C-alpha cells in the first residue's frame, strides 16, 4: 500500500498505468479507511492529470482512460468524507476556466464503455451528498458537462447498451430528492445562455436542455406517484420523506406554468393579474404571435420564420411536459400537503386563465366532418396546441377534488362555464368531454352553491353542424319541453 501511494503515475507506460489502476480499484473496494488513505495521497490528482494527458495524446486508445476513471470512481464511491475532499480536485478544470481540460470534457469520447464509466464516476462523486452535489454544481466545468450529458440522453435514448440516459435520470432524481433542482437547472442554463435567444432564459422552460429536464421530471413523477418501474441498476434510491422535495419541485413547475400563461396573455393583448410581463415575456409573446397565424407546413413559409417556428415548437413541448407533470402530481392524495394553499390557488387561476384563452382561439376538430382530422408531427401539433386543453381540464378537476374553497373559487372565476364548454368531442384533445364531466362532478359533489348555479342555467340556443345541414336536419330548442334540444327536417 505504501509503495502504491508513492507511485508517480505521470511517467508510467500505458500498460503499467493500467496495472496500477487495477490495484487502486481493488484497494479502494476494501472499505472507507483504504479510500481515505488513497484520497489523502497525491494519487487522485496525478491520476486525473495522467487520464487527461492520455486522452489528448492518444484519443483512440481508451482502455487506459477507462481504467483510470474506474480507479477514481472506486475511491469516492459511498464515502461522503472522500467525496468532499476530492470533488473540486477531480472535477474542476485545470486551469480553471477551461472546461475542455477537465474530466468532464471526456463525455465526448467516442468509446461508449468509457463514456459510461465517466458518467457513473460523476454520479458516484455526488451520491447522496447534498453539500458535495451543491459544490459540484457550482464548478466552472460542470455546466459544459451537464449540457453534454443531457444532449447525449437525446442521442442515445432507447439505446439499451448506453448508461448515459439512466445516469442522467438518477442525477435528476437526486437533485429533486436533495432539493437541488433549481441549482441543476441554473447550471444547465448557464451552459446555454450565450447560445440562446434572450427569451430562453431561466424564466422560461423552453430551451432544449430544460425540455429534456422536464422529460426526466415527468418520468420521476410517474415513478414516484404511480409506482412505475424505475430505470436500471444505476438509479439512486431517494430519501423516504419526499414531501419537502416534492413541494419545491411543484413550486418550480407552477411558476413556469404561470410565466408561460403570462406569455400567452401578452401575445393575445391581455395581461395576467399574477405576474407583470417583463422583457423576456414580452419578447416570447411577440415570437409566438409572429408564428401562430402562419401555416408552417405551407411551401410559401419563409426561412426567416424558422426561429419563430422553433420557438413555438419549444414552447408547446415545454407546456405539454409541464401539464403532464402537474397532472400527475395533482392526482396524488398527498398533493395538498406538497403545495401551499396560496400556490395551489394561483395554479388554479393560471390553469383556468389559460384554458379560457385557448378555448377562445382554438377550433374544435371533429371526425364527423367531411375530412377526418389527423395530427402529423410536432410542428402541426404545436400550432394547434393539441392535448393542452385536455390536460388543463384534468388538472382543474384534480385540484378542486374535495376542496370546497377551491370549488367556490372556480365558480367565482367563471370556471364552471369554461368546463361546460369542454363537453364536446375534440380530436385535438382526446377524451376531453369525459375529463370535463369528471371535473364538473368534482366541482359539484358536496357543494350546494355550485349545484344551484348549474341548476339555474338555461339553454340559450343550439349550434348547427354542417353535416346535419347536409342531411337536411336542423337542431333547435323545444320550448314546449323545457327548452330541450331536438332535431327537425329543414
TrEMBL record:
<dbReference type="InterPro" id="IPR019156">
    <property type="entry name" value="Ataxin-10_domain"/>
</dbReference>
<dbReference type="GO" id="GO:0051301">
    <property type="term" value="P:cell division"/>
</dbReference>
<dbReference type="InterPro" id="IPR011989">
    <property type="entry name" value="ARM-like"/>
</dbReference>
<comment type="function">
    <text>May play a role in the regulation of cytokinesis.</text>
</comment>
<dbReference type="Pfam" id="PF09759">
    <property type="entry name" value="Atx10homo_assoc"/>
</dbReference>
<protein>
    <recommendedName>
        <fullName>Ataxin-10 homolog</fullName>
    </recommendedName>
</protein>
<dbReference type="InterPro" id="IPR016024">
    <property type="entry name" value="ARM-type_fold"/>
</dbReference>
<comment type="similarity">
    <text>Belongs to the ataxin-10 family.</text>
</comment>
<keyword id="KW-0131">Cell cycle</keyword>
<keyword id="KW-0132">Cell division</keyword>
<feature type="domain" description="Ataxin-10">
    <location>
        <begin position="388"/>
        <end position="482"/>
    </location>
</feature>
<dbReference type="GO" id="GO:0005829">
    <property type="term" value="C:cytosol"/>
</dbReference>
<dbReference type="InterPro" id="IPR051374">
    <property type="entry name" value="Ataxin-10/CTR86_families"/>
</dbReference>
Amino acid at each position: 500500500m505504501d509503495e502504491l501511494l508513492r507511485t508517480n503515475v505521470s511517467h508510467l507506460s500505458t500498460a503499467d498505468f493500467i496495472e496500477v489502476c487495477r490495484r487502486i480499484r481493488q484497494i479502494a473496494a476494501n472499505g472507507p479507511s483504504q479510500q481515505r488513505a488513497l484520497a489523502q495521497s497525491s494519487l487522485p490528482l496525478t491520476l486525473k492529470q495522467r487520464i487527461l494527458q492520455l486522452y489528448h495524446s492518444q484519443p483512440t486508445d481508451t482502455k487506459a482512460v477507462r481504467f483510470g476513471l474506474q480507479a477514481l470512481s472506486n475511491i469516492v464511491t459511498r464515502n461522503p468524507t472522500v467525496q468532499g475532499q476530492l470533488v473540486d480536485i477531480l472535477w474542476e478544470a485545470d486551469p480553471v476556466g477551461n472546461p475542455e481540460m477537465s474530466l468532464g470534457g471526456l463525455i465526448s469520447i467516442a468509446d461508449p464503455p468509457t463514456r459510461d464509466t465517466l458518467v457513473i464516476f460523476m454520479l458516484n462523486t455526488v451520491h447522496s451528498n447534498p453539500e458535495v452535489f451543491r459544490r459540484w454544481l457550482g464548478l466552472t466545468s460542470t455546466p459544459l458537462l451537464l449540457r453534454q450529458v443531457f444532449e447525449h440522453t437525446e442521442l442515445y435514448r432507447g439505446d439499451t447498451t448506453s448508461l448515459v440516459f439512466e445516469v442522467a435520470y438518477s442525477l435528476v432524481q437526486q437533485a429533486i430528492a436533495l432539493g437541488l433542482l433549481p441549482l441543476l437547472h441554473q447550471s444547465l442554463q448557464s451552459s446555454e445562455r450565450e447560445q440562446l435567444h434572450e427569451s430562453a432564459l431561466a424564466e422560461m422552460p423552453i430551451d432544449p436542455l430544460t425540455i429534456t429536464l422536464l422529460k426526466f421530471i415527468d418520468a420521476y413523477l410517474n415513478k414516484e406517484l404511480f409506482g412505475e418501474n424505475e430505470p436500471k441498476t444505476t438509479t439512486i434510491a431517494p430519501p423516504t420523506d419526499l414531501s419537502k422535495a416534492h413541494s419545491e419541485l411543484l413550486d418550480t413547475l407552477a411558476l413556469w406554468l404561470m410565466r408561460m400563461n403570462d406569455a400567452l396573455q401578452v401575445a393575445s393583448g391581455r395581461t395576467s393579474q399574477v405576474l407583470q410581463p417583463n422583457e423576456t415575456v414580452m419578447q416570447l409573446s411577440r415570437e409566438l404571435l409572429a408564428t401562430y397565424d402562419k401555416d408552417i407546413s405551407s411551401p410559401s413559409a419563409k426561412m426567416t420564420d424558422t426561429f419563430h417556428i422553433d420557438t413555438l415548437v419549444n414552447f408547446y413541448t415545454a407546456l405539454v411536459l409541464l401539464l403532464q407533470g402537474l397532472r400527475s402530481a395533482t392526482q396524488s392524495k398527498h398533493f395538498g400537503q406538497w403545495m401551499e394553499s396560496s400556490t395551489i390557488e394561483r395554479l388554479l387561476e393560471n390553469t383556468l386563465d389559460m384554458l379560457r384563452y385557448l378555448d377562445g382561439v382554438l377550433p374544435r376538430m371533429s371526425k364527423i366532418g367531411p375530412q377526418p382530422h389527423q395530427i402529423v408531427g410536432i410542428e402541426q401539433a404545436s400550432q394547434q396546441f393539441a392535448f393542452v386543453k385536455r390536460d388543463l381540464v384534468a388538472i382543474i378537476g384534480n385540484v378542486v377534488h374535495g376542496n370546497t374553497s377551491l370549488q367556490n373559487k372556480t365558480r367565482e372565476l367563471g370556471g364552471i362555464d369554461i368546463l361546460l364548454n369542454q363537453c364536446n368531442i375534440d380530436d385535438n384533445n382526446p377524451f376531453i368531454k369525459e375529463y370535463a364531466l369528471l371535473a364538473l362532478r368534482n366541482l359539484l359533489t358536496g357543494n350546494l352553491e355550485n349545484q344551484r348555479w348549474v341548476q339555474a342555467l338555461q339553454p340559450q340556443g343550439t349550434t348547427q353542424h354542417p353535416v346535419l345541414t347536409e342531411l337536411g336536419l336542423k337542431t333547435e330548442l323545444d320550448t314546449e319541453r323545457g327548452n330541450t334540444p331536438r332535431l327537425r327536417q329543414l
